[in-house]
Q: What sequence folds into this?
């Protein structure tokens, strides 16, 4: 715990580092004034719990399944080949 | 301009033109075009559907209004069995396993998709230059950009390669290219059209919307695509926009607001400013009440939008790592496979946004930037709620500057981000906004309160008559 992940690891992009243009955007936000007298709802597009749909499994069609398999980066006997995961 | 859809429908039904000929004409135009507006031309797919419409007409059956009408689909929508590249190398060979709800509704109404349309990769751009299929050229001046990210869609409509096209708008991606190519483009209220099957950029502002040459066609297509969808929980049921809404005009005394700081900004081109002021004077003479309003600074709107959009896109694109999607690079470890795959297949601009998003969300920054941006967004929404107690609609320029030349946007990302200053605020508020190709060089934006999409049509019809 406590080990900070670098941006290239977080982004899974080789040599990724903070860019000046993005830093400049963030500086504007840091200086932004929040009006503490205004009560605002920050969850503007959140769905109410009562409106959530049931948690159910809907099987996809054979066509859909075949197309998903066709898109596999690596496939063997109809299964997706995944890279070895445990390393460190 | 009256409805092109209605005119084509009449010709098809009266056998003045066959659907096969109509579709073939569009396919030929697209193939011969050098505007880079397409990623895939759907020859066989479209001609098969056209033949079915022709046999229906030959059998004396009546066809629906959209039946046989050729349309384009921005290449961020899934259409089962066709490639959906999102303008990227990553998904260049990705075949849609299913069809997006909005597109399915158009297919159910009989409309025929003829082309998947070029766009900025994953919606990341304002010029349609950030694409691996070549920069899209503006329909009116091939040396200029098409706008973005739905540049291919706007150009196809403007050149009449498609009767209408379906774009996607996260921070202005329908409205800005519509303005740059002088066609209509609508970002409806967030949730009016299901996002299911639209590749997510920033899920909390992503909107599906039509681009067309006439207001009437925007209305027809919007009505078909709207509605609550089980598969998108943020979607909602809405009332269809009536024909009267589109033919009515605004009554005298309608309160039309505009943002003072947008118009007084030094960043606004003098020609756009002068034309906007002339437009307001005309509207005042027509008996409208013009109401100046205060609003957030353009830089603050852009920064708030990009901080949130980058955070959301970093999360949404995290799944693209070569395991489930895209070409998988070789590597000695899992981390290396991920990073080589992503470094080789995302464009520089997409990488910038992913890295920026992870920066926003990382320890230390999340409170200072992400949470604050969310608070600012809440205040922007609150501001809109208060504004629309005072006015019926708000008018604004689509962009601060005229259409730029091809080749400069990606070299100067900050200028590109700031070109979105007048569109991103309405995205953060989830408000319905229509670009009408009137009065200003890059069009005028008409914005209404949430779920008040209908008044946009009446206002645009009124502007058409008086400007």
A:
């Amino acid at each position: 715990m406590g080990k900070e992940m670098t941006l290239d690891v977080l982004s899974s992009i080789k040599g990724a580092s903070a860019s000046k243009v993005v830093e400049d955007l963030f500086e504007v936000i840091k200086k932004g004034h929040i009006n503490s007298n205004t009560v605002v709802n920050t969850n503007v597009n959140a769905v109410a719990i009562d409106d959530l749909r049931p948690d159910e499994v809907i099987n996809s069609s054979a066509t859909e399944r075949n197309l998903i398999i066709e898109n596999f980066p690596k496939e063997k006997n109809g299964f997706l080949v995944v890279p070895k995961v445990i390393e460190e | 301009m009256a409805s092109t859809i209605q005119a084509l429908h009449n010709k098809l039904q009266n056998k003045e033109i066959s659907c096969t000929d109509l579709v073939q004409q569009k396919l030929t135009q697209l193939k011969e075009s050098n505007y880079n507006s397409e990623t895939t031309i759907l020859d066989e797919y479209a001609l098969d559907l056209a033949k079915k419409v022709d046999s229906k007409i030959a059998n004396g059956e009546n066809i629906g209004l959209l039946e046989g009408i050729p349309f384009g689909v921005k290449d961020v929508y899934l259409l089962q069995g066709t490639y959906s590249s999102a303008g990227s190398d990553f998904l260049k060979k990705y075949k849609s396993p299913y069809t997006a709800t909005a597109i399915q509704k158009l297919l159910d109404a009989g409309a025929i998709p003829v082309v998947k349309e070029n766009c900025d990769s994953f919606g990341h751009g304002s010029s349609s230059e950030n694409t691996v299929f070549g920069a899209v050229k503006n329909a009116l001046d091939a040396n200029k950009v098409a706008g973005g990210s739905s540049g291919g869609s706007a150009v196809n409509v403007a050149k009449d390669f498609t009767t209408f096209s379906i774009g996607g708008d996260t921070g202005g991606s329908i409205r800005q290219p519509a303005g740059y190519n002088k066609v209509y483009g609508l970002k409806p209220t967030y949730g009016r059209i299901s996002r299911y099957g639209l590749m997510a950029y920033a899920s909390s502002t992503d909107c599906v919307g039509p681009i067309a040459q006439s207001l009437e066609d925007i209305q027809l297509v919007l009505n078909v695509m709207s509605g609550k969808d089980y598969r998108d929980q943020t979607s909602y049921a809405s009332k269809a926009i009536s024909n009267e809404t589109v033919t009515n005009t605004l009554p005298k005394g309608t309160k039309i607001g505009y943002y003072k700081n947008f118009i007084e900004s030094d960043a606004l081109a003098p020609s756009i400013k002068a034309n906007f002021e002339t437009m307001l004077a005309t509207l005042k003479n027509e008996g409208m009440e013009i109401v100046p309003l205060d609003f957030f600074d353009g830089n603050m709107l852009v920064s708030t939008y990009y901080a949130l959009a980058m955070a959301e896109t970093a999360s949404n694109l995290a799944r693209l790592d070569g395991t489930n999607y895209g070409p998988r690079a070789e590597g000695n470890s899992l981390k290396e496979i991920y990073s080589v795959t992503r470094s080789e297949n995302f464009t520089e601009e997409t990488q910038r946004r992913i890295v920026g998003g992870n920066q926003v969300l990382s320890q230390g920054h999340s409170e200072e930037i992400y949470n604050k941006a969310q608070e600012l967004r809440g205040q922007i929404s609150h501001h809109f709620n208060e504004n629309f107690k005072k006015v019926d609609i708000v008018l604004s320029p689509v962009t601060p500057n005229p259409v730029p030349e091809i080749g400069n946007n990606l070299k100067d990302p900050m200028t590109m981000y700031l070109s979105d200053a007048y569109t991103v605020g309405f995205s953060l508020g989830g408000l319905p906004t229509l670009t009408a190709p009137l009065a200003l060089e890059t069009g005028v934006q008409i914005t209404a309160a949430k779920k008040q999409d209908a008044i946009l049509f009446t206002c645009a019809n009124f502007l058409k008559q008086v400007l």
Summary: Residues 4-246 of chain B form a domain with the Amidase signature (AS) enzymes fold (CATH 3.90.1300.10). The CA atoms of residues 249 and 462 of chain B lie 5 Å apart.
